[in-house]
What we know:
This protein is of the alpha/beta class. It has helices at about 1-45, 75-90, 100-115, 135-140, 145-160, 185-195, 275-290, 310-315, 330-335, 350-360; strands spanning about 55, 60-70, 90-100, 120, 125-130, 170-175, 210-215, 215-220, 230, 240, 245, 295-300, 305-310, 365, 375. Among the domains are: about 55-165, no CATH class; about 210-300 and about 315-375, no CATH class.
Amino acid sequence: MKGWAQxxxxxxxxxxxxxxxxxxxxxxxxxxxxxxxxxxYLRSNAIFPATRPFNVIPTTIIxxxxxxxxxxxxxxxxWDAILELNCYHNIGIHIIxxxxxxxxxxxxxxxxxxxxxxxxxxxxxxxNQTVFxxxxxxxxxxxxxxxxxxxxxxxxxxxxxxxxxxxxxxxxLADLDLKMLPKTSIVxxxxxxxxxxxxxxxxxxxxxxxxxxxxxxGISKPKKGEIVGKYYDTFATVFWPDTFxxxxxxxxxNVLYEGENPKLVRSDDAKHGKFxxxxxxxxxxxxxxxxxxxxxRVTSCFGGLAIYKSKPYFEDKCNYQxxxxxxxxxxxxxxMRYASKKxxxxxxxxxxxxxxxxxVDGFNIAVNPNMITYWKRNG
Length: 379
């Protein structure tokens, strides 16, 4: 009997050890599988994991939404500005890239560890375009340049909308292939004013603008030690109330329309008034001095960076795509006034702002002359 009891005891512990071994093996396999899935997900979507080497503020009502074709091409100066907004001003970052999102993630991580490792940073998401729905991916795959960009902006807007379910806030839309973003102090000043915090130029009434664009400039050769501003984004710019900035020779229909001010149409020759890119840049500077807010109202603009109240930005009736949210007939004919000869359609920003003007009561957009972005190119 004693030998049998010892045998039963040994058998019991063998069974226990076998069960424990199986549990450990299953747990390990599940861990490896989960890690593998996580790594695959990170490689395909490049979303920054929640566990970062610094504190993360769980939520924010201000997001910078940036797009760039190649995530590895965001330059160091732009990363510094992104980091300052993210970790010093509680602005979430939501970047969409065509490729190399993982490299962008790596560059951001290096910057954070070097400059903001003890800061509380707002959420950061960097994703490849593969996260878009099949409908958008098909449009992006088969469309020409502006139609493709329009679809990317609409798809990004849908993803960003999820961050504003319970509260209104601010969307800062930015192109991240810029040479330089505006000074953070100026961006924050405009964000707070658009958001509704603090007096404007000594006044306490509500800030009148729903959106503010940068005074975008191409970088030209310095004259007498100073960079000369040459306004870049004429394709996206329509002066108030209705003068298209694009030169006649670059328009699909090279005529002035009724109501346009020929003095505000970009031209490089005396025949049409010689209103150059440098003149446009300085025009916003000079006109801004005359207004209560320091900004110049326009009908459409972008300049590489624009600040929007989230409520009008997410207006359901409006889109960046030309054939999605834009009426046919007379209204479509009107929007085609802003088509370029090269693209045979208007800029996506003009389409979007035209729709907001028609569907958001009192929609007001302006250029801030001092919120300057720089491109590596002129045009």
